[in-house]
TrEMBL record:
<dbReference type="Pfam" id="PF13716">
    <property type="entry name" value="CRAL_TRIO_2"/>
</dbReference>
<dbReference type="InterPro" id="IPR001251">
    <property type="entry name" value="CRAL-TRIO_dom"/>
</dbReference>
<comment type="similarity">
    <text>Belongs to the GDAP2 family.</text>
</comment>
<dbReference type="InterPro" id="IPR035793">
    <property type="entry name" value="Macro_GDAP2"/>
</dbReference>
<protein>
    <recommendedName>
        <fullName>Macro domain-containing protein</fullName>
    </recommendedName>
</protein>
<dbReference type="InterPro" id="IPR036865">
    <property type="entry name" value="CRAL-TRIO_dom_sf"/>
</dbReference>
<feature type="domain" description="Macro">
    <location>
        <begin position="27"/>
        <end position="207"/>
    </location>
</feature>
<dbReference type="Pfam" id="PF01661">
    <property type="entry name" value="Macro"/>
</dbReference>
<dbReference type="InterPro" id="IPR043472">
    <property type="entry name" value="Macro_dom-like"/>
</dbReference>
<dbReference type="InterPro" id="IPR002589">
    <property type="entry name" value="Macro_dom"/>
</dbReference>
């Protein structure tokens, strides 16, 4: 039993039996499914009182936030939770971390951190909030939990519009249950009286209780319904870099050049910068700029990016966990991990992604290092444009290129192999011999021990399905 008797009466109102079937002509992208509806419970009450396998706590990055949800969870769980929290060492925005429930009726508490909402970075906030719900559900699945009680993760302190946040919450849960419905018996949304009206209005959009309600709710479906996982998708946010960017002539005014540049390649500062790099190359080839002058100009440009990277708030990019430092390889070189599936190219500000890369890598690249790129289960919306990669190569300091000793491309596809060959042969120099195509984790572990690399669970699951159990050996001729 999930909740008490009076609460049960309130939440049961959302669960309805099948209604007479209507025409299937104009189906919703979230069609009526009785098997999924049976798993959804809406409850107006305190999430800390739920007798679920796990309940969700919303907090800040240091897990010390003071909000009604956290205060109640800490009050009922007792002093043992307070003693346990420092062991988590904080939690990044969008991540989910697990503790015991201690004094709660729930066996576990899943702690997560919702994003701070700013209109300027709306798409980044949407992506981070999606990550909160998705990571909680994924953690519940991995730990074989049968029931999960969600609070409203986007707290008022973080200024997230309630209706927008509710769309993301319901959509993410719906898409997860469509694929992994067998993993969970119940998902409970615990809401306050103020939140209840919004949930009651939007629940039929994503969990229609009949074909009639499915059709009636279609006008409430927002333009962006996310991808197959419910993750927000905004195609117009994708960076587009012209193959032949406009260059300013000496006799052109700055305003005229800027106007022409914007009309040709867009207003993105990173896209405009490509023209500067090309112009410097041409001048060097024409003998109008010496190699030393070009290097000095390049260093000044890199230092400007590094200065910005050290001052801007990049927590939304860090929350994606698409780039992180792991241990060391068998030669003692730092291992940097890139997770392709975690890069929502269509959603994030790619300029901020570059800033995060520089911020993290500047101190790493002073010594020898290796990159491990997990191409596992990446979709078209995760692929980085070759022009973007070329510009990263052009921007970063020389130490990045000199000290990169190997790039392990894990779980490549035929298409990615062709693209990588083309990119390393015709676009950048000096990288081709460093790239190693790695078909299985068995091969990877001969270069980097399993204890020295943090691998996403979905990569482990995929490799086990495709290659079977791995048995690390001490030699691998391909690396």
């Amino acid at each position: 039993m999930l909740v008490g008797g009076s609460a049960r009466r309130r939440c049961a109102g959302f669960l309805m039996s099948r209604q007479p079937e209507l025409s299937r002509g104009a189906r919703s992208p979230f069609p009526y499914r009785e098997d999924i509806n049976e798993k959804i419970v809406l409850w107006a009450g305190d999430v800390a009182l739920l007798n679920c396998t796990a309940v969700v706590n919303t907090s800040n990055e240091t897990l010390t936030d003071k909000n009604p949800v956290s205060d109640s969870i800490f009050r009922y769980s007792g002093s043992e939770l307070l003693e346990e929290m420092p062991k988590l060492k904080g939690c990044r925005t969008g991540e989910a971390k697990l503790t015991k429930g201690f004094g709660l009726a729930a066996r576990y508490i899943i702690h997560t951190v919702g994003p701070k909402y700013k209109t300027k970075y709306r798409t980044a906030a949407e992506s981070s909030l999606y990550s909160c719900y998705r990571n909680v559900l994924q953690l519940a699945k991995e730990q074989s939990m049968s029931t999960v009680g969600f609070c409203v993760i986007s707290s008022l302190k973080r200024c997230y519009p309630l209706e927008d946040a509710t769309h993301i919450a319901l959509r993410t849960v719906r898409r997860f249950l469509e694929v992994h419905g067998a993993a969970l018996e119940k998902v409970v949304f615990a809401v306050t009286e103020q939140e209840e009206s919004v949930y009651m209005r939007l629940l039929p959009v994503y969990f229609p209780r009949s074909l009639e309600e499915e059709l009636r709710s279609r006008p409430l479906i927002p333009p962006d319904i996310g991808n197959a996982d419910g993750e927000p998708v905004v195609p117009e946010r994708q960076i587009r870099i012209s193959e032949k960017p406009v260059t300013y002539e000496d006799d052109s005014s700055e305003d005229e050049g800027l106007s022409l540049g914007l009309s040709f390649i867009g207003s993105h500062a990173f896209a405009r910068m490509e023209g500067d790099v090309d112009k410097q190359r041409r001048l060097a080839l024409q003998g109008q700029m010496s190699g030393a002058a070009l290097q000095k100009q390049h260093q000044r440009n890199y230092n400007r990016w590094l200065s910005r990277a050290r001052t801007e708030d990049l927590s939304d990019i860090a929350a994606l966990k698409a780039l992180y430092q792991s241990g060391v390889d068998n030669c003692g070189r730092t291992v940097i991990v890139v997770v392709g599936r975690n890069i929502p190219v269509l959603l994030i500000d790619m300029e901020k992604a570059l800033l995060y890369f520089i911020h993290m890598m500047d101190h790493v690249a002073v010594k020898e290092y290796v990159l491990v790129y997990f191409h596992t289960l990446t979709g078209d919306h995760n692929h980085l444009d070759s022009d973007f990669l070329r510009n990263i190569h052009d921007i970063v300091d020389a130490k990045y290129k000199k000290n990169l000793k190997a790039l392990y491309f894990v779980h490549p596809t035929f298409r990615s192999k062709v693209s990588t060959w083309f990119f390393t042969t015709f676009t950048v120099s000096g990288l081709k011999d460093k790239v190693h195509q790695v078909e299985s984790l068995h091969q990877l572990f001969t270069a980097i021990s399993v204890e020295q690399i943090e691998i996403p669970p979905f990569v482990l699951d995929y490799d086990a399905r495709e290659n079977g159990p791995f048995f690390p050996s001490n030699s691998f001729s391909g690396l």
